[in-house]
Amino acid sequence: MAYGTRGRILRVDLTQASFRIEHFDEAFYRLYPGGKALAGYLLLRELAPGTDALAPENLLVIANGLLTGAPISASTRFTVAARSPLTGAYGESEAGGFWGPELKMAGFDAIVVSGRAAQPTYLAIRDDTIELRDARELWGREPEEAQARIRAELGDKLVRVLQIGIGGENLVRYAALTNELRHFNGRTGMGAVMGSKNLKAIAVRGSGRYADALHDAKPIAALGRALGKRVKEHPQAWDMQEKGTPGLLAGLNAAGMLPTRNFREGVFEGVANIQWEVYEKELLSARRTCYACAIRCKREVKVDDRYQVGDAYGGPEYETVEGFGGYCGIDDLQAVAKANELCNRYTLDTISTSSTIAFAMECFEHGLIGLKETGGLDLRFGNAEAMLKTIDLIARREGIGDLLAQGSKRAAQVIGGDAPRFAMQVKGQELPMHDPRGKVGVGLGYAIGEIGGDHLYAAHDTMLANPDSISFKGAAPLGVTALPARQLGAAKARNYAILENWNSFGNAVGLCYFGPAPRSFIQIDEVLSAVRSATGWDMQLADLLRIGERATNLARAFNILNGFSRRDDVLPDRLFQPLESGPLAGAGISRDDFDLTMDELYRLKGWDPQTTVPTRARLRELDIEWVADLLGV
Amino acid sequence: MKLYLGSYLSWYVPQRLSRLDIPLLAPISLMELLAQLKLPPAEISIAAVNGTMVPLEDTLVCDADMVEFHPPVGGG
Fold first, then answer.
1. Residue B74 pLDDT class (50, 70, 90 cuts)
2. CATH: 3.10.20.30, 3.30.870.10, 3.30.160.20, 3.90.650.10. Which one for B2-70?
3. Is B73's CB within 8 Å of A252's CB?
């Protein structure tokens, strides 16, 4: 068995109600150490191109990262991957919390679920005791109750539960998974894939010790202790603990790049009512954390005022505050907190849900849909009650909600007319709350990302603009260059490629975006040391970046085999139009400069600029020449 | 003068507050203000006075002004 791993994955065939444990050796883990890399390998190898994402044949891969469960901050994350019902492309989403570390303690690096259960089922894993259990009484129940029932049935209140709510059961194409009610694999509709398999939950309890799997546990324990002491001394880590992601709103608004009313504007006039200081005063009830993480960036909220919001499901993050706030033109933070609670109870991705509703609001304002289609809802920007009702309809697939549950791209095709212009999506996935007109590298990530529009492929340009800043200095060992946030060109393509590989590596080893560079709470040499200590492998920084690049190439190959090419690596037209007001008034993205930068990016990646197919030479360099055979290059 | 420190910039002031009242007897440049508060200029991505973005260099503020500093903000 390879140090740092458990050396085995659990195969579950729901159709046959059978299990199998598969073992992998060290040579395998060196190439595919976990998370995104392991999931990409399995999906590319085993899932036939063209498989319907909601058919039993789709595979649901749940994979820990190499360092998931290590007793150091920011190493809690696991990947859920499958063909996405939202995009038809490679689907992937990471979550922190406690479930991933528990799975590792139970002795597994990953679970691969195939088939479809004859009736609602949940999977219970208690070390090597593995059972499929009847979930008919759980189906339709909200996560808080379902979790309590599972714990009672298993007689163990510490069992960790990963599950779906009615959004996943009803196959909303952007349904999420939740663990411990407060942590979410939000993106690309993995909850719908789980629902399509009649799989309500996966409950895990492990008795193993992560340290027993390590090559050398002492340096990792020492790093964990050092990070615990460092939090209060590190401005960005302190900020994540104190304000968390909602602290981003004010700065993005001041810079004129706070996506407002479906990316029509970059400044929200109501921001003072939804920014951090209001959150702290009106919503915040406690701070929480993920397994072994000293940063403690999670918030818990409770409201009993204009809206009633309980504290079971965790507080809204930045994406959610802005998504249901300025993006929908709503300046009532309590309504935003209610929207967050509804999405979490129903397990809906808050980014795609808010964005799809904003899309519908713009369609409504243009008369493309009316009161007849909305069932009487006055679905204008700023109408909080209509927004909340629409979330309900989406989760239940009722009325206009049935159409919006398909995502903005499909809904736009049905609505017709100008509607596709208002669907702010890439590859079918709705864009997060970051405007590439203010930070163009994020736009490169939106366009090229294999999962569709997402903000965690790229390093955000603003963090790499000043060579003397904490962020830049933290990322400097990667070989990046300080560049203005809005500058395109070859140097920006190079920065992007480096940071994409770094972020992809993070998803392969289970590291949270808020730990390592460019956040720089955990230094790059500390990440390298942790990998070496965990595995005993004499790796260099370049090897870590190759892990990330390899994982990206697996996902890209998956997409190519499913019919994707450069025509899918594009941004919505609106982002090429200049903003009309605010500090960035007049700022758009030059389409020519963007295309030239994308050309350079494909060249750096070793991909054909028209088809985006990786060259055999590059795949050989990455030790995955078998992928070239699959692609026929 | 009223000062708003966005995101992690509050960490640099002793009270770790986002909002501060700083009496100014005479106009002061933003760079001098940063120096007084021991805020590193490299961490300032956005400076705004009375809601309008301004350059750090060559901007004077007085007691009646509302000043905002924000650091580089990334994803979340």
1. confident
2. 3.10.20.30
3. yes
